Amino acid sequence: MNTRKRGPRLVASLLSVLLAVNCLSVASLAFASEPLDSEEPAAVVQPVDGDTAVSTLETAESDEAEQSAAQDQPVGAEVEADTDAAAAAAAEGDSRSQEAADEQPKAEASDASDANDEAVTVQAEGTDDSAVVTLAVQNNVITSFEALLQDGSGPVGNVSQWQVFRMKGNFELPNGQVHAGDTTTITLPEKLKFNQTAAFDITDENGNVIGQAVIDGANKTVTITWTDFAETHSDVSGDFYFYVQIDRNMVDEAEDIPLNFDVSGNVVYGGDIHFIGIPDPAPYYMSKNGYQVQGKPRYIHFQIPINTIGADIQNAKLTDGVVNPGLTIDASSFRILEGTWVKIKGDWELQNRTDVTSNYTVQFSDDMRSFTLDMGTISASQGFYVIYDTVASYDLVDGEVIRNDATFTGNGSELRHISATATYFEAGGSAVGYVYAINVRKVDEDGAALAGAQFNVVRVANGAVVGTITTDASGNGSLSGLLKDDYQLVETVAPVGYTLLSEPVDVSAGSFDSNKTANVVVENSLERTSIPVSKVWVGPAAGSVTMRLMADGVETDSLVLSERNNWQGSFDDLPVYDPVDGHEITYLVTEDDVDGYSQEFTVAEDGSYVFTNTNNEIVIVNGTKTWDDADDQDGMRPESITVRLLADGVEIMQDTVGAEDDWSWEFAALPKYDLVDNHEIAYTVTEDAVEGYSPEYNGFNVTNKHTPDKTSVTVVKAWDDADNKDGIRPDQVTVRLLANGEDTGKSVVLNAENNWEASFGDLDLKAGGTAIVYTVAEDEVDGYTAVITGDAQTGFVITNTHEPVVPPTPPSVEKPTDTPKDTPKDMPKKSVEQPKTKSKAKPSIPKTGDDLAPGMLALGALAVAGAGCLVWARRTKRNLQDR
């Protein structure tokens, strides 16, 4: 290679290249256009797709050249159909990068014949001769160019004025020729321009940097500075790309444009494109477009021209919202501009514009993803521009399309609805938009294909479900139209008979190969189940039992339950579905019979079996009623009683019995053991209370006791005999007790010692349920008559009456007295109950002393006569009683 010293101009150019290398960044953003200037922007609307106008703004303070460039760049573009329509949302480049590049001297290339052999030795200012840099300009490393659609999917074909398309360059680095610091400068054809100015890296498939590129928008160049990668690798080749569009300052008529790229003095032809020309802008009630915000990678700017049609609109209202998950509206960026729309070179330009944001109230949604703007009345001469930014919560990737929907109503109807898109560009990266695909192969544990698996494909960055994949009979499924980004496959439906994946399958951006495809193999295990089995004994447990598993009626397994395994077991790892034909297997657990026990089982919701073996022993409970009530003396015995049967203290049955049942009961066929905890049931009986009786239980027999009511009868003796004047009162009398007129055989003796009073105690109150009538009778007392008063309740009083004998009155000489008359023998006997009335007449006794002797004689005669009469009277009474 020849090495020649160049002049000062070449040295300055090389120094500028070194400066540019130091300013390179690893990743770059391709901007659709410049953002609106908040100071003095002038709006220009340019057409795209079905609309004829999208907008751009220029800065009043920019120099004439910058103004001219801005006139040719779109601020954004409406996109309603295909991706290339969205590509019309283009932009000027990074102005700061442009300014930095403009300030640097440009390296000059030699003519094509010797450029590849050119080497430059540069001595930095202030250094000695040993501190030199030897650089080479490589003009034969770029082998071809090709104009492609935005996503790189095919030739661009016809190109519209705002359309952004991709220029793909291919390179080959000769072995041993390219060194670190060598450069290649590419100059665009004059009728193209960059829509971006950010630096980008050229990498291999592993991300190793081969070269670093800087775009100079003003001079339409991209300079690649090669790294030492070619020095350590052989046969280095690859491709890179950047985004361009038509330079409207250089062409406005339809024509074919040859793509001749100057590569450091060597021309590389990239074919022809056909420019369709600049049509007149179409008027609309409302249109919309968007683009990336320069210097803010997550920001997308949207702008809405209103009333370019020049109509009178009543009750105008704009509703707008972002569609992509993870994006919100930045309220601080919201502005409303008012002015007059004017057509300028195929564009709509808002002239005499004024910021009128404060004149309107904007209603933002709570999630800041949409808004409503009531604009009231708009006259035909009024034009408006509504502009704002959206912010992504994640890092956008190259080729990602951001969608925004807007609806404009007025004059009582919807005037227009539009979906606008903005595409995020990142030149030179390995990502190329929505051209990636995920292929899924679904297999079982043995690698056999599984059909019917369904996955949601979720983009990790914003959590959006971007599509679904369903595997076919060969186990394959795919989803294309993806960005190069991180995804997760969330299985929503597993193949029949297989277990649904519990965790998502990660697919990283690095999983996509050179064919832009990520191939993922997902394995599913057969859906399996377990059937737990347990045993419950009601009654004494047997030694062991055998449980058998039936699958579709065929025995496939068995297990033994015993006290050793706590009467529990499980049939495990059972396939839910038949692997041959996919039908769901029907399982049934059976138990070998156990003598002396009945068997039943239950199946829980989880499929577990509980077998209950119940001891067949039964218990009979019977009993009788015994009455201890003196043969129902008081008449209180009921006609029937209720007996209740209790099991462990809880009533389970009852029976009503009476005399016709012989006062007996029976509860038959009772289980001997409890079904819950296997204990022997304790049976008891209780009897409903019987009034007047107290129960006594002896096993299942009940004795009802009733003590008959008792009473007592008191008797008192009264004497009416002038205090025993005649001295005939006996020492005692006997009184007998009668019950209902019959002698009870009970008697009491009344005398002076008991004060002539006594009681008959412990007497039954009733007999046969009827109250007994108690009376008393007294043995006869000579010389007395008896009268009984009172009753059994208050007591009896027997009054014995005796009238003392009165001596006869002696005869009087003057007036002889009458002698007592004898009582005839046939005179009726006086009633015991009716005593004789005492006579109160007293005999008259002479008071003269002369008559004393005869009187005394008469008195003695009377006494003898009286005693005779008394003897006669007693004999007469006895005779009458004997009759």
From TrEMBL:
Residues 67-92 have a biased composition (Low complexity). Residues 93-109, 815-836 have a biased composition (Basic and acidic residues). The chain crosses the membrane at residues 852-873. The keyword DNA-binding does not apply. It is found in: Secreted, Cell wall. Residues 438-523 form the SpaA-like prealbumin fold domain. It holds the Pfam family SpaA. It is a peptidoglycan-anchor. Residues 286-392 form the Collagen binding domain. Its main location: secreted. Residues 1-32 form the signal peptide. Keywords: Cell wall, Collagen, Membrane, Peptidoglycan-anchor, Secreted, Signal, Transmembrane, Transmembrane helix. The keyword Transcription regulation does not apply. Residues 159-254 form the SDR-like Ig domain. Residues 38-125, 801-852 are annotated as: Disordered. This is Putative collagen-binding protein. It comes from Slackia heliotrinireducens (strain ATCC 29202 / DSM 20476 / NCTC 11029 / RHS 1).
